[in-house]
Structure to design on (635 residues):
């Protein structure tokens, strides 16, 4: 029965398409934004991959550091500025520790992009409110630049970003320089300004809401930050009359595959990697343990 | 489906023919338990087995599997060792085939898992019917009968097997025996129906899964979960023996004094404290109660939302193996109990 044996072995090459395969990328630049929160600029070793890679704001990649492992990292750069990927990486575990020991031109592995990302088509034509606390600016920065680079697709754009001190602010210089832009309401706050010279607000992040007039019916709000930020900001948004499905949140979970298999990022009946990491507040309410 | 009969006395001949389709693996005794392993002799096969310690997932998602080797300058190179071993799994029960069908969905979704898929394509499945014991509740989970996921399925009719031919490969197997199988007669059909009704009456365990997702949802805050958290040892044995638990961990390792390494995946369990822990110290399921709740929630509620049915197939392994005697069927009954809800 040779026919049968053939039937069982005749198929495309083993592992022709392997979604777990990390593609080599070089570290192009390391910008020491904040201690233990550096911005790594990466470029695929293969020019075609560098040119063809496209993501949506809010998506993430799986970053491999040889010998250390793999971790999900959200993409901080906008797809409107292709060729390189900017990753704001907090030094917090085995993989990121190993990344911090690398230097420019060293090789890492990338696969992705994964996750749903922000629904940019659905956001088009609406006002945007971006609210970030602490390290929550990392995934929102992609959406910010995406919206600014396609400015006529959106109504008013408001950014509220709060950090503890100016030294803790991610993308501080870049964001401060955006404050003069007429087509963006850029509200930056710090809780304290120990060294003096902070040009913007000194207040708690939620207090920035008192400085703007928002149109909840035609606005989408995107929030990212530590749990306290979610609690306080959600309270404000709901009081203003925001519908629960116009509030978008970016979540992080432990992930080992990024593609809906390993089970670690599972919350309720969702996988953060496939159904998220962007969830509406309505989703969040209906998924236990989500926040 | 093409249906034939096979004289029971000639089963060894069928198996000898099946060897050309791959290594024959079947249930064999190990102490007072059973395991699936390669048959050295046909006489080792124990077709009267109840359930094997580990389900079939070990063939497709090995407990430890090398995904990549890493060498400096080469990057991550996929490890394909042993992926293309041709195996015939002989004597698989319906619940385990059902479990396999569920894994096929999980590993064949938007991002098909090529390791799983490659192994799966190499393995043929010959199912066999079974007699439920005190831990079987596959009927409640609608996994007591399978209509796909096998190449051949043998139904015991006393002196012969009624044989369902599930795939073209199964049909090739039949052809390869050159006339061993006979057409089905009226008597065979009647005997099958009688046997089916008899088997139906043998089930001693029942779980009612109608509207269970809704009940799980409403009983999310039930004290029952805290009680279970107190009892559960967090050993993860239930996950290891579950035919549809597929969580895995991935870890890189580097050989001492070398820059070469490897990336392996290993079975994991949502009952382990590390399962939902993120770097930086946050753990989304820090308490044991939240972890055991998650496990049941995912089987009976979460999976339904994603795939349209619970991922539990009622094989009874977790009931059998749990050192704390935690019992899926009891939990379902407990959640459904009206008094329990009123006592909140």
């Amino acid at each position: 029965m040779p026919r049968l044996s053939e039937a069982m072995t005749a198929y495309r090459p083993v592992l022709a398409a392997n979604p777990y395969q990390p593609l080599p990328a070089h570290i192009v630049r390391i910008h020491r934004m904040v201690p233990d929160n550096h911005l790594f600029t990466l470029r695929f070793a293969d020019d075609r991959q560098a040119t063809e890679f496209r993501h949506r704001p809010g998506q993430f990649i799986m970053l491999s550091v040889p010998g250390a492992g793999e971790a999900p990292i959200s993409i901080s750069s906008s797809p409107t500025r292709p060729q390189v990927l900017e990753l704001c990486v907090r030094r917090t575990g085995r993989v990121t520790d190993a990344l911090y020991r690398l230097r420019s031109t060293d090789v890492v592995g990338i696969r992705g992009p994964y996750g749903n990302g922000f629904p940019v088509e659905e956001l088009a034509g609406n006002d945007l409110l971006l609210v970030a606390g602490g390290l929550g600016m990392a995934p929102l920065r992609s959406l910010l630049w995406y919206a600014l680079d396609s400015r006529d697709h959106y109504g008013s754009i408001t950014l509220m970003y709060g950090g503890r001190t100016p030294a803790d602010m991610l993308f501080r210089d870049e964001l401060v320089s955006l404050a003069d832009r007429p087509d963006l309401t850029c509200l930056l706050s710090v809780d304290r300004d120990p060294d003096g010279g902070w040009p913007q607000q000194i207040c708690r992040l939620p207090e920035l809401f008192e400085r703007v007039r928002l149109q909840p019916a035609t606005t989408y709000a995107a929030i990212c930050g530590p749990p306290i930020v979610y609690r306080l900001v959600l309270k404000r948004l709901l009081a203003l009359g925001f519908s629960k499905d116009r509030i978008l949140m970016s979540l992080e979970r432990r992930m080992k595959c990024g593609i809906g298999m390993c089970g670690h990022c599972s919350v309720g009946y969702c996988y953060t990697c496939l159904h998220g990491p962007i969830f509406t507040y309505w989703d969040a309410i209906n998924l236990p343990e989500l926040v | 489906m093409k249906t034939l009969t096979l004289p029971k006395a000639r089963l060894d001949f069928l198996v000898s023919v099946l060897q050309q389709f791959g290594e024959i693996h079947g249930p064999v005794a190990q102490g007072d338990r059973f395991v699936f392993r390669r048959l050295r002799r046909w006489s080792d096969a124990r077709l009267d087995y109840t359930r094997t310690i580990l389900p079939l997932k070990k063939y497709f998602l090995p407990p430890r599997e090398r995904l990549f080797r890493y060498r400096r300058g080469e990057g991550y190179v996929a490890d394909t060792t042993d992926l293309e071993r041709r195996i015939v799994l002989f004597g698989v029960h319906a619940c385990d085939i059902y479990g396999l069908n569920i894994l096929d969905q999980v590993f064949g979704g938007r991002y098909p898992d090529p390791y799983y898929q490659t192994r799966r394509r190499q393995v043929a499945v010959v199912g066999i019917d079974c007699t439920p014991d005190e831990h079987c509740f596959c009927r409640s989970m609608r996994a007591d009968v399978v209509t796909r996921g096998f190449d051949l399925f043998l139904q015991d009719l006393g002196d012969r097997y009624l044989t369902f031919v599930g795939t073209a490969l199964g049909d090739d197997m039949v052809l390869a025996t050159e006339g061993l199988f006979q057409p089905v007669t009226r008597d065979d059909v009647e005997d099958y129906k009688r046997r089916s009704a008899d088997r139906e009456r043998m089930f001693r365990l029942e779980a009612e899964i109608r509207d269970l997702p809704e009940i799980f949802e409403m009983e999310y805050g039930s004290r029952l979960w805290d009680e279970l958290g107190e009892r559960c040892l967090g050993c993860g044995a239930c996950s290891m023996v579950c035919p549809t638990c597929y969580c895995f961990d991935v870890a890189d390792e580097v050989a001492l004094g070398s820059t070469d390494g490897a990336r392996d995946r290993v079975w994991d369990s949502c009952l382990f404290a590390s399962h939902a822990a993120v770097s930086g110290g946050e753990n989304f399921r820090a308490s044991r109660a939240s972890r055991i709740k998650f496990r049941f929630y995912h089987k009976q509620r979460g999976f339904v939302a994603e795939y349209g049915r619970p991922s539990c197939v009622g094989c009874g392994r977790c009931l059998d193996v749990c050192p704390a005697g935690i019992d899926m069927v009891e939990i379902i009954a407990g959640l459904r109990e009206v008094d329990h809800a009123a006592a909140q």
Observations:
- Chain B has two domains: 2-61+81-202, 212-259+267-342.
- Chain B touches chain A through 64 residues (CB under 8 Å).
- The CA atoms of residues 270 and 294 of chain B lie 8 Å apart.
- Residues 212-259+267-342 of chain B form one domain.
